[in-house]
Write a structure and sequence with these properties.
214 residues, globular, 6-stranded mixed beta sheet, alpha/beta, 2 domains, binds zinc ion, Beta-carbonic Anhydrase, Chain A
């Protein structure tokens, strides 16, 4: 008897009867040859913003790391546990990805928490509070803007934090060097859950724009 929730087992049954059958050759090849994804995506844990679904990606196409609010911490070789930096190191140094996309999304709970730093922590460890302190200066600046509505502040910080994370990516020597050699490009994107719209960061201006899909 399995302990997995029925919904997961039913989903797995569908996967084996559908997608796995149509992609079994691809899975076998990936098992034999290893993975060679060209794109790393840094996305939020939020169940509504799955990169593989949004980019319609098959197995082996995207190397994904997800964390609360899709943040990249600055380079800090301090002997502590850095899961996102470990994923980044592997993607850049071993897989040699050509693109890194930091993808944020609307209604992000992590960003909401950053805008309410005095709220009661969810647990004594306050891991979210510590993690979201990565964007504290921006959160403070946005929180203090009374010209904006709460929704506007939320969207603003979601997008500003993407630029923050991209700046932090450049603090990793390997990223900075490869980007300067034009072997690696950094991108920002923001997904609106309710409409499905994807907004892409203009690399010159930092503004977010709707891409031309034609
Ligand atoms: Zn989120």
């Amino acid at each position: 008897m399995s302990n997995l929730p029925d919904q997961l087992l039913a989903g797995y049954r569908n996967f084996m009867g559908g997608r796995y059958i149509s992609e079994s050759g691809r899975y076998r090849e990936l098992a034999r040859e290893g993975q060679t994804p060209e794109t790393m995506v840094i996305a939020c844990c939020d169940s509504r913003a799955a990169p593989e679904a949004i980019f319609d990606a098959g197995p082996g196409e995207l190397f994904v790391v997800r964390n609360v609010a899709n943040l990249v911490p600055p380079y800090a070789p301090d002997g502590e546990y850095h899961s996102t930096s470990a994923a980044l190191e592997f993607a850049v140094q071993s897989l040699k990805v050509k693109h890194i996309v930091v993808m944020g999304h609307g209604r992000c709970g992590g960003i909401k928490a950053a805008l309410a730093p005095d709220a009661e922590p969810l647990s004594p460890g306050d891991f979210i509070g510590k993690w979201m302190s990565l964007v504290a200066p921006a959160a403070d600046a946005v929180s203090g803007n009374t010209m904006m509505t709460a929704g506007e502040r939320q969207t603003a910080l979601e997008r500003i934090s993407i630029r923050y994370s991209i700046a932090n990516l450049r603090t990793f020597p390997c990223v900075k060097i490869l980007e300067s050699k034009e072997r690696l490009s950094l991108h920002g994107a923001w997904f609106d859950i309710s409409t499905g719209e994807l907004w892409v960061m203009n690399r010159e201006t930092g503004d977010f724009e709707r891409p031309d899909l034609d």
